[in-house]
Every structure is written in C-alpha cells, then in structure tokens.
Amino acid sequence: MSFLPLLLIIVVFYLFFIRPQMKKSKEQKKFRENLKKGDKIVTIGGLHGKILEVSDTTVVIEAGNDLRLTFEKSAVAMDNSSQLQENK
C-alpha cells in the first residue's frame, strides 16, 4: 500500500509531461519528412523563406533577393503558409 502514492505520481508525470512531449516530437518528425518544394517555412532561428530543394537531410531555402541558404531539416520549425495568408 505504501507504493500507491509513488505509483500515482509516476502515472501523473507520464500523462502530463512525457506523453505530450512524445506526441509533439512525432508530429514534428512527420512535418519534416513531408517538406516539399514551394513550402513556406520558418526555421528555428526565425528565418522565413520558401523551400527550393529538398534532399534527405537538408533543404535549400530562398530567403529573398535570390539569396539561397542550405539548412538541415531539423532546423525547420514550422509551416508559414497560413500565417502569410492571414497577414494579407
């Protein structure tokens, strides 16, 4: 019976901290695997751009004025297509 509070704390910790983090990580991995040419994205560093090329581990991004930058896929944070449409 003395293990019940400890077990309850572990279950709560799993449900509120570990499980949501694992779900978010899976969604982020799926997003990065589905990147394609023409997607508008934001990198972890805050750079906004449009994807020109996609390879296994990297993406080439056009950041404006024909500036092409190569980033690791892991540096892509989020899709920016919907945000650009809302701002217009």
Give the percentage of residues in beta strands.
25-35%
Q: What string gives the helices and strands in order?
A: HEEEEEH
Biggest sheet statistics: 5 strands, antiparallel
Total helix count?
A: 2
Apparent shape: rod-shaped
Note poorly predicted spans.
none
Strand order of the largest sheet: 4-3-2-1-5
Terminal CA distance: 61 Å
Radius of gyration: 19 Å
Query: What portion of residues is helical?
Result: 40-55%
Mean pLDDT: 91
Number of strands: 5
Secondary structure class reads alpha+beta
Element layout with pairings:
Elements: H1 4-33, E1 40-43, E2 48-54, E3 58-62, E4 68-72, E5 76-79, H2 81-87
Antiparallel strand pairs: 1-2, 1-5, 2-3, 3-4
Report on the architecture of this protein.
With 88 residues, the chain is of the alpha+beta class. It is built from 2 helices and 5 strands, in the order αβββββα. It has helices at 4-33, 81-87; strands at residues 40-43, 48-54, 58-62, 68-72, 76-79. Strands 4-3-2-1-5 form a 5-stranded antiparallel β-sheet. The longest helix has 30 residues, at 4-33. The chain is rod-shaped.
